Amino acid sequence: MTLPTIFEVVSLVAVVGVLVADLAIIGRRPHVPTVRESVAWVLVYIGLALGFAGLLLWFGGPTPAGQFIAGWLTEYSLSVDNLFVFMLIMGAFTVPRQYQQRVLMVGIIVALVLRGGFILVGAAVIAHVSWVFYVFGAFLAYTAVTVWREGSAEDEEYRENVVVRLAERVLPLTREYHDGRVRAVVDGRRLFTPLLIVFVAIGTTDVLFAFDSIPAIFGLTHDPFIVFTTNVFALMGLRQLYFLLGGLLRRLTFLPYGLAVVLGFIGLKMLSEALHTNTLPFVNRGRPVEWAPEVPTWVSLVVIAAVLGATVLASWVHARRESAPALPAAGEPSDEREVRRG
Question: Best exposed site among 15, 48, 240, 328 by fewest CB in 10 Å?
């Protein structure tokens, strides 16, 4: 079923309203959120995403609802993996913790605006160039292999992208944060604070991540509205998740492997779809490949949920084993009392 236009317009307006309200709340009271507060807001945003999926089911049927859930799970998982890079950026620019909420929120809004343009371009390309799924599928398969090879090894150093380096070179900057303001007067000169550069760093770095995630979502649905809303709902709860997970991100040891499997699965799904709708003259003489399977939405949803669930469970078991005290070897005293007895 096609989603009603009025539903799409109202949904986008409502999402923008939530983002603006969230930004206004942060601007009024910058602080470091407690664990309880972070958990509450993460649950709120998860509830909003599931509620939106329910509305899609009501207005559009099971297909768009299933596509949204599968895309949201994929995007959310990729975003969790990217939180580690956000931590590196905060550390590289020594952002005070009370301003990190605002940095993340503004960076996410910048990323959503840039991603929106990326999604529109991607939808236009898909609509006019059918063989682009060969490119997307091959790219995701390559990315999956790369992620799998890198495993859980993380780059401990943040490298500034071209946009950030250009901004630092062109803009007049001060080294102080000046109570979280973007501009400040220093010795009679109006200068930008490092906060502006951090906004740019978070936003543009997140767009680089989109080169993996957005083709993956297009592999699950061709509807740009669903692609964009999966990005919105995944990124909206990212700020609270950043403070909630913190050092726990390092304990998700097997998350990169799970993401590699998900990206590989979607890449193969896109290649299969490209074969099924083939028009390239050098592939099967320009005719569709009939034996190429069509993967239903519910299968994608089950595979993604199962892989991510198994990844989290395996990481949890591994972390428990790593933190468990080692048993004493044969003949060694088991505790201090036995040492004293000896």
Answer: 328
